[in-house]
Input
Amino acid sequence: MSEETNTPTTNYQTPTTITPRTRFAPSPTGYMHVGGVRTALFAWLVAQKDGGTFILRIEDTDKVREVPGSIEQIEKSLRWLGIEWTEGVDVGGPYAPYKQSERLDIYTEWAHKLVDSGRAYADPYSKEELEDFRNSAIANKKPFLYRDHRPENPPVWDGTLPLRFKSDPKDYQWTDVVMGDLSTGPEAIDDFILIKSDGYPTYNFCHIIDDMLMGITHVLRSQEFISTTPKFLNLYEALGIDRPILATLPYVMAIDGKKKLGKRDGAKNILEYGYDGYLPEAMMNFLATLGWNDGTEQEIFSAEELIAKFSLDRVQRSPARFDEKRLLWLNGQWIRKLSLDDLYKRCANFWPESAAQASDNAKKQVLSLVQDRLKTLADLPLLTAYFFAEPTPDWTMTSDNKQLAKIPREELNDLLISAKSALENSDFDAESIQITLNALIDTTGQKPGVLFSLIRLAVSWAPFSPALNDTLATLGHDTVQSRLQTAIDAA
Ligand code: GLU
Output
């Protein structure tokens, strides 16, 4: 077999002249995690930015790996994040169906075209024969290439044998918009399977047919597909079609940067973040900045800003690290940006049980106090439970506070007695309370750090609370008096 050594520059369209049609093409093999959703987001952004179309195609030709319910999970995950598709599985569109298992006739038709043009043939070998070829390659210290064993007279393909691509091994040089200029030699190209013996096409074959028929302009996908790209280039040529723009996204790595993010390192179901009190805006912001920035120091991006600013040429080539602390920080930032009414709506499932009977107004007032302190909506019970139910005094908590830990309990108790009597006659708006508290600092000679922490603890028995004067004003005069008395009695 002769191998051509000339180096074709493969055809591809330049990004500036076309209206993008991008797709997210997941296989329904389980839940969606951060890496997968980031690919979807970037593809969506490319389409949104230039008034293009984003398509959701389901690649379900590997029936062995399929997990029931995955398609619904994928749709739900994307929608939670705010990623909508204008063509795809459940919404239809001009190139329907968008589920590969419903397009088998189309792949068979294209497979026959390749057979007819002499670029595909039935694979007659048994598993054992293939194993022998592989073993002899290993014994000869050569890489195993199927094409070294191409049958001279393959049987007619009747759909029961695997169908293989008759490759044309050669050098390739191509440009990936993210990874840059790449090149490979003929050894990267082999006769891969187009249609398996079960009648289903391989990913290597059907994604190319679908991308072509669906008019996909940009293929965004993860790094794991980069080594098979020369095979795809070879198939584009055999089919006589222009290839789309290729954008290969580097892996998302675990925080240590050493391994690809796995389930154990936080690659959990993206929907779980929603159940854990993360906002989709924060998650979108986080995913977009996993390996992309706009060239400035800006860290907070809304969907609109991302659409306006995103570009593939600013996606980093090196792997991004999954930093869950950054996600938490972003979530806190996004919680602060919400209007009180909007935040209140989103908190519906997060209130402590003790708030069940509280009025909307009471809850909103408490929410306004803690909005700046929430990192996730799930922090709500810890930060607010004591507004709705009597806390149980726990004097051991004073030893968790560095300043209080140094002072004997009796002395702390005396301070509480003074505080109770000063507050008894105070007006109970936040401003008057502050004046009373300031006066108390003068009369007791205590540092605010000690006095305020102590009162805060005695009325809440919680590790955090909003500003003390606001907390006391919201609890009200009588509650504050009775809680201080309970604390004093428990000392
Ligand atoms: N079905 C492939 C996957 O789930 C998609 C790869 C691609 O986008 O072409 O990994």
Notes: Residues 1-9 have pLDDT under 50 and may be disordered. Residues 25-27, 59, 203, 207, 221, 225 surround glutamic acid (CB under 6 Å). The longest strand covers residues 172-176.
